[in-house]
Amino acid sequence: MSKQVVIFIFYGMSKKEEGEVEKRTGEKYFVIEPYDNAKVIFKAIDLSDEGRIEISKKANWKQLLQIIKDQLKLTDTSTFLFVKKDNPDDQIDNDGDLMDLWNELNKSRKVMYYTLKMRCLLITKEDKLMTWCPKNSDNPNFRYEMETENWSQHFENLKQFVEISANDEWLSESGQDKKIQNGEDLKAIWAERYNNSETYCLRLKVISANIGESGEIGEEHADENIQMKKEEEENGRDLNQSDNKGQGR
Q: Where is the composition biased (Polar residues) (predicted)?
């Protein structure tokens, strides 16, 4: 057996550049497109002499998950799903699915790589980047059984995962002001992750009532500060007037 680990991460890599990588390595690989223009290239380890991964499927699955977390600087508790870019129904949920997909690629004489997308919610909170999927969404039937899921519980799980404060923080889609307020909102958002290969991964942001997304003080607190400043100025004027009355020449 041969053991080799090759990891690349590219931003905005063109088809021509991908071809150059293919020529240089001459081996099969997966291209993972997590979000935006980021791309991670993964090559399996501990291949058999025929290039298959039956014996090393668990090690390869663990390696793939860790590479994604390391390269994208995700939190250790992040969860995400893989799906073939050209087939939204072909979800890679475990080491067995990974083995089947790799061995299928290995058999092809023409195709050198498969492109995978990540299905998840990508959440930014302060300086942390994390990804999340509903519990049991790695079940192939989850998509078709969403109506029977307890989305209120999924929403609570998400808030606990992100560590959302009960009263003064909430989640919102990046670029939009609409709050994600309950399980039904979350259900609608997750259902959309199955529709378009360009939106498998959705960016969310954490907004605080005290500190806005950009770090600016929220409107309510800004108004309070203005009112306090006015009161301080008025009190200052009253004190000055009293002092002036008691002063002589």
A: 238-249
